[in-house]
Design a protein that fits this description.
This protein is 37% helix and 22% strand. The chain is α/β, with parallel strands linked by helices. It has a six-stranded parallel β-sheet with strand order 1-12-7-4-2-3, sandwiched between helices. It is elongated, with a radius of gyration of 25 Å. The mean pLDDT is 90.
Length: 242
Amino acid sequence: MADTHQQWLEQRAAESRAKQEAFMNDIAGKLRRPRVLEKPAHPFRGAPDFWKAYEWSVEERVERFTGNFKSAGGHVECLSDMESAKQFIAAKAGELGAHYVIRQNQPELNELGLEAALPGAEVSVWNSDSEQYWKARAAEADFGIVVADYAVAYTGSVTVLSSKDKGRSVSLLPTVLFVIIPLERLKTRLGEVLVGFDEAGREQLPAGIHFISGPSRSADIENDLTIGVHGPGVVYALIVGS
């Protein structure tokens, strides 16, 4: 019997450690190998030098991004210029019967003239009217249109940053999402994108950093896959300049 509460706690701790040792020894015995009692050597931190220098050609970046993005259920179109991107979106609006469109308030989209190209749709520009409830406008939209800040060929993903003119809701809530990717923003490795955020420092980080790798995909405990529950069910990546 422990004489003091402190001794009682120490006794319980010793018993717990003994049980942990027995448990781990039992696992090692079943695996028929000795227990690892020292942490393994880890002489490197971060990506190795060979990976930091790994680079694909422009053609291979487009090819790899296309394959990876499509394998996740997305669509990819390679277009020569922004005018072609506008015409592609307009054609899809007619094909799919889009009536409500929301886009980011970005210079590239301001110059694109989508409003004139979509006479049959109401086009809203994120955060352009302080009286509007913009999340609701995004939720009711058939199309959301954004310009990617970066894209990564190796992972088949697009990076979209948030700010007062670039609401996350535009890429998250509409039924169909169009992501315009200027070719010069398509990188080989994810590290090429992330290093810029590290170098900028915490004070310069954007409000949000979002990675999009195709349409929303959700699976329950029975592995029943559902598309479009937590985001757009259809995503088009438009690589411009290829």
